[in-house]
Amino acid sequence: MRVRIAFLAVVLFAVAILGKRIKIQVVDGKEWNQRAEDIGLQFRTIPATRGNIYSDNGSLLATSVPFYRLAFDPTVASDKVFTEGLDSLSILLASFFGDKTAEDYASRIRGARSGNRQYLVLNRRRIDYQEKKEMSAWPIFRKGKARGGVIFEKLEDRVQPFSYLGRRTVGYMNEEGGGRGLEYSFNAVLAGQDGSALFQKMAGGNWKLVRDGSEMQPQHGWDIETTLDINLQDVAESALLKHLDIHEADYGCVVVMEVQTGEIKAISNLTRGDDGKYREVYNYAVQGVTEAGSTFKLASMIALFEETRLKLNDTIDTGKGTYQFYGVEINDAKPGGYGRISVQEAMEKSSNIAVMKLIDAEFGQNPDRL
User: Fold this and answer.
1) pLDDT for the residue 311
2) How many CB atoms sit inside 10 A of residue 261's CB?
């Protein structure tokens, strides 16, 4: 009997807790949300660290480099630590940032402490990890966040260590969710899953993390390894730029493929700007559809002879020299076109239309077969 009574009491207690929770979240939800806004509490996003992009030998093509912004809670340190370390800390800050005198820093920090300000951005300049490590040994800061009040706010920048090398292929993502290249195509894999945590709004409009155990840690993005060879990429870009300059061409493209595997080892696209300089602004290799070059016509004909019953005396109608191919106009060199010609004549005259039509007729429904 006692066990039953105890069990019933536990059940009633659990139901009461559940009812109270529902009341707070549903019935009184707006009121509590308003109170949270009044005292500056808000759940905010904690961004996930974006995955890296590597070349075929593990060289970094794109990575997220951590930077930090230095902030300070001047109310945390004890009177003894604060008094003994403030002058030395101010001198170090003035020397490092060079934007204020030591007296200015000391006065600003002292004023924030007397005003009970729990969040003070000391300088908005970004600092790297080595600088953060150096600052962690400074007076007051060496006591850490819990006893010294130092706050290193983590920020991230996306960088490409090889600068312009393969820049268009590696690509980018913008704040609106648009982008180009590998960064955009593999964004779902690279981006990871953002987390969230409770933050309190401080004076000056800044936000301070409230560690109350409700944080949801972000799931960082996956790395991807490409088939690009950074050395071949360098050679390809240099050679393309050299010959575009020589011929004063409007644009050019080069793709280096490992024929045994189909892996793309280098890819470069350069367009001439109004100032005469060449830049990567459009991916002609992937997006640019144009007449097949004469070298590729030979490869196409070899594929046709190997995979079909095509003969040299078979004929193909090339029309009047123009042909709409999936929304793109294809032209032959001869004005007015070649009309109906044999396969052999198509190669002799290097007819773009003939080769396009033959390839589309045989492989259009199954391009992987080509």
Assistant:
1) 92
2) 9
